[in-house]
Design brief:
The complex is a heterodimer of chains A (254) and B (334). By secondary structure, chain A is an all-alpha fold. Helices cover 80% and strands 0% of the residues of chain A. Chain A has one domain. Chain A is built from eleven helices and no strands. Chain A is globular and about 65 Å long. The model of chain A has no long low-confidence stretch (mean pLDDT 91). By secondary structure, chain B is of the alpha/beta class. Chain B has two domains: 220 residues, P-loop containing nucleotide triphosphate hydrolases (Rossmann fold), CATH 3.40.50.300; 87 residues, no CATH class. Helix content of chain B is 33%, strand content 25%. Chain B has twelve helices and 15 strands. Chain B has a six-stranded mixed β-sheet, sandwiched between helices. Classes of the chains: A mainly alpha (254), B alpha/beta (334). The interface between A and B is medium-sized, with 25 and 37 residues.
């Protein structure tokens, strides 16, 4: 199999989505550059107090929201690029053209996953450090890349798994991402104490490992050592989803 | 050998809409030996596409089993692959023709120069070379169908499955398609063709499976049998007295213009013994009867030795369209 040709064609078919993501990333960088030009302090940091004086609460809130969204950018990029990873092929009939050929579907879709995951990773890996450099004058180091990789693996794996079954693959993955955020928030607030421990553990196990993703994000935010044990669990979660997708792919009708 | 044994396929209805399940194939048993071209015909919804989907392992039978050379279809395909043209052939519209074929050649296991050569040959065979750089989405319907045929026949496969292969092709490419099928014929290669165009199926297929309501209604021979009495339409460039000797009992073909001794055209069924020769007249068609293909060859050789110029020899049988109509609607056929 000519993996390079297939990867190139995969990216060509996703060209519009890639361009949309690049435009979205450009918005972040434009906002950061504007803030830096308007309210940078002597250390080259964006000064939130000055920003408040200029734009009031809305300007500060917008900046905080952008910072929060930036942390989720790898999820957004992964969902946008991976949506329909397999389900689109089945709906359009392309999957049957691949299925009659003596090439393993794992190689076909593995190549496609790798190409799209690579692009999601690359865009995020350029955007996030650049944003940090503009806003803070420094970047968080390799923890940034580990955080991006974690998100790409977890949500890429989930989209791949759901894509074997339904066209709503990315939407379900997004729903799970939101559910995991809420669940983790409730857990941190101690609200889940009344939920039976077994049920709590099962839900925590099945949902994306938000608490561990946060621990990696904190390391990234505070420029601390990378929590490798958390990364290993997160990577294991994503790879397990991919393995389940592979098994389902062999059994699923096309 | 493709074997379907008591195969039933039911598509479950979407829940909560009061719809009933669809029985696409119902207890179908069929054995297709290797070699030859098999047509699959039938009305819309007869189960042609479902039959192909089962043979190629896209879907699983609800009951019964499907085997190709003794293997479960998906296992067979992983090992040997198949040439396949779907009914509505599509590729991602952003891909270019050349790159699409190159990618699919890669999935066929072809690499580097071999893949490029095979793609070049396929594009040449189906007249796609001038369109190599075009996006698939910009192709006309006919070109898209030619691309479909090109991608299906990229590799040399023993199982060829073509669903409505001439759909959208212009008359010239329909004729070329027949040549493609003729080139594909081989003792080990089984070609399955589904089509609503019965005249086309009659031209290319050896046998026809007629499906109706998910069941096999009839399996028909299209090609004249190698043994057994058969009639032929024999057209000579000019009348020859040798016909009467070579084919005793030969008649002027019904509806065709016969030529009398005088060179004057006459109608009706006239035996050759009555008419004799009329050298110098135009083409004339006879109805001749022989016991088998071997006898036909022997008698034709005698005719040619006697100086007759044969313009055409064609078996005479009931057109497939009539046979299908009779099978599907016996009342109307009467």
């Amino acid at each position: 199999m000519n993996a390079l040709v297939l990867a190139r064609l995969t990216l060509r078919a996703r060209r519009k989505r890639i361009l949309a993501l690049l435009a979205f990333a450009g918005l972040f960088l434009a906002a950061a550059a504007t803030a830096r030009l308007l309210v940078s302090d002597t250390d080259g940091h964006v000064n939130a107090d000055q920003l408040f004086l200029i734009g009031g609460y809305p300007a500060v809130s917008a900046l905080l929201l952008m910072g929060w969204l930036l942390g989720r950018f790898p999820i957004i990029a992964t969902l946008v690029l991976m949506a329909g990873l397999l389900s689109h092929d089945r709906a359009e009939g392309y999957a049957r053209l691949y299925a009659v050929r003596p090439a393993s579907p794992l190689r076909v879709y593995g190549t496609r996953f790798a190409a799209l995951a690579g692009v999601a990773f690359a865009i995020s890996a350029v955007l996030m450090p650049t944003f940090d450099l503009i806003m803070l004058g420094t970047w968080a180091g390799p923890a940034t890349l580990v955080l991006i990789l974690s998100y790409v693996l977890v949500f890429g794996g989930l989209v791949a798994l759901f894509s074997v079954w339904t066209r709503a693959d990315a939407w379900i993955a997004l729903l799970l991402a939101v559910a995991a955020l809420v669940w983790d928030g409730l857990r941190s607030a101690g609200v889940l104490a009344q939920v039976p421990a077994g049920a709590r553990d099962v839900v925590t196990f099945l949902l994306p490992p938000q608490a561990l993703l946060y621990s990696i994000e904190e390391a990234f935010g505070n420029i601390q050592p990378i929590p490798w044990d958390a990364f290993l669990y997160v990577a294991g979660y994503g790879l397990t989803a991919l393995a389940l997708a592979a098994v389902a792919l062999y059994r699923r009708e096309v | 050998m493709i074997e379907l044994r008591n195969v039933t396929r039911i598509y479950a209805a979407a829940p909560g809409r009061g719809r009933v399940d669809t029985v696409a194939l119902d207890d179908v048993t069929l054995a297709i030996p290797p070699g030859g071209v098999w047509g699959v015909v039938g009305p819309n919804g007869a189960g042609k596409t479902t039959l192909f989907a089962l043979v190629l392992g896209f879907i699983h039978p609800t009951k019964g089993r499907v085997r190709i050379d003794g293997l479960e279809p998906r296992r067979y395909l992983r090992r040997h692959g198949a040439a396949y043209l779907p009914e509505r052939f599509r590729l991602p519209p952003e891909w270019t023709v050349g790159d699409a074929l190159l990618a699919l050649a890669g999935l066929e296991g072809l690499k580097g120069t071999a893949a490029k050569e095979r793609v070049g040959a396929a594009m040449e065979r189906f007249g796609l070379e001038p369109h190599a750089k075009k996006p698939v989405g910009a192709l006309s319907r006919g070109l898209n169908q030619r691309l479909g045929l090109a991608q299906a026949l990229l590799a040399d496969r023993r199982l060829v499955v073509l669903d409505e292969p001439t759909e959208g092709l212009d008359p010239l490419w329909r004729i070329r398609f027949r040549d493609v099928v003729a080139d594909l014929r081989g003792a080990e290669r089984t070609i399955l063709v589904a089509s609503h165009d019965l005249a086309e199926v009659e031209r290319i297929a050896d046998r026809v499976v007629l499906l109706e309501g998910g069941r096999v209604k009839e399996v028909m021979d299209v090609a004249p049998p190698a043994t057994g009495p058969i009639s032929y339409r024999l057209t000579l460039a000019a009348p020859s007295p040798a016909v009467a000797e070579a084919f005793p009992g030969a008649e002027a073909f019904p509806g065709a213009v016969a030529v009398a001794d005088t060179g004057t055209p006459v109608g009706g069924r006239t035996t050759m013994a009555d008419r004799g020769a009329s050298a110098g007249a135009g083409p004339v068609t006879y109805l001749v009867h022989v016991a088998d293909a071997k006898e036909l060859s022997t008698r034709l050789a005698a005719l040619l030795d006697a100086g007759a110029v044969v313009a055409e020899v064609a078996p005479v049988g009931e057109p497939l369209e009539e046979r299908v109509r009779r099978a599907l609607d016996p009342e109307a056929a009467r």
